[in-house]
Amino acid sequence: MKQRVITAIIALILFIPIVLLGGLWMDWLTIAFAVVGISEIFLMKKQILVSIDFLLALLATLVWTVPDAFLKGMPFNWSKYGIFYALIMLMLTWTVLSKNKTTFDDVGVYTIAALYIGTGFHYMAAIRNNANGLVLLCYVFVVVWSTDIGAYMIGRKIGKHKLWPVISPNKTWEGSIGAVICALILSAIYVAVFAKYFNQSQIFMLGLTFVLSIIGQMGDLVESAFKRFYGVKDSGKILPGHGGILDRFDSMLFVLPVMAAVLGIVH
Questions:
Q1: How far apart are CA 201 and CA 196, in angstroms?
Q2: What span, in angstroms and rounded, lies between the C-alpha atoms of 192 and 35?
Q3: How far from chain centre, in Å, is Cα 133?
Q4: Cα torsion at 95, 114, 31, 145 (round to 10°)?
Q5: pLDDT tens sequence across 206-236
Q6: Residues 131-160: pLDDT tens digits?
Q7: SS3 labels along the chain
Q8: What is the pTM of this model?
């Protein structure tokens, strides 16, 4: 527990000032998160990072992570989709050149991981760097963190009925329902305090909170599923006592793109 607290304090000391600054600081922070995230996928698969596979997967991830403005001036006016497609074609070509040491299944994992990690972290910066972005991003933090805390505390106190024991044996229906209620209460307070910064009504934001809380829990379960598939306890070790970047941002990676889509945020 002591290690977890120390890690959390150090992480917040580094994280909070960058969130407050926004702009390029936030862009580069999310790029760093994405680099670590795709690295954790490779390490869970017990694959080395010094490889053609990793280089191509990393580039594919970064294509989705960076702001659109970073890619202006590319030859032939390629969009993110064009660049990403080209990288996928290179990955598939590498399955041949490597004589199937890199398999079609591997390329499938890299493709999904690049979309999942890159898009999620892209919208963390996109939301922050939008108008009223600090308030909006903090709203996401309130929803996700209150969902996590509510699920843990209520599930531990009164949880009896297992939610999905094959994937995550400690989660319960009571904890899941309590998590949504907790998110609704805390986000209602937050939205009421910062009402002038939201273009939507408080009723709309409560409805969005309900949806995002459920989506965040699904993001948590998805990460639990692929950790169980690869037989690992944590996605990484970069945060002692907390695991890896994917462990800490599993819910966020699902919630952020949905939040951006609902509010029409681009970056």
A1: 10
A2: 36
A3: 17
A4: -150
A5: 999 999 999 999 999 999 898 889 988 888 7
A6: 899 999 999 999 999 999 999 889 888 878
A7: CHHHHHHHHHHHHHHHHHHHHCHHHHHHHHHHHHHHHHHHHHHHCCCCCCCHHHHHHHHHHHHHHCCHHHHCCCHHHCCHHHHHHHHHHHHHHHHHHCCCCCCHHHHHHHHHHHHHHHHHHHHHHHHHCCCCHHHHHHHHHHHHHHHHHHHHHHHHHHCCCEEECCCEEEEEHHHHHHHHHHHHHHHHHHHHHCHHHCCCCHHHHHHHHHHHHHHHHHHHHHHHHHHHHHCCCCCCCCECCCECHHHHHHHHHHHHHHHHHHHCCCC
A8: 0.91
Distance of CA 241 to the CA centre of its chain: 19
Residues counted in the chain: 267
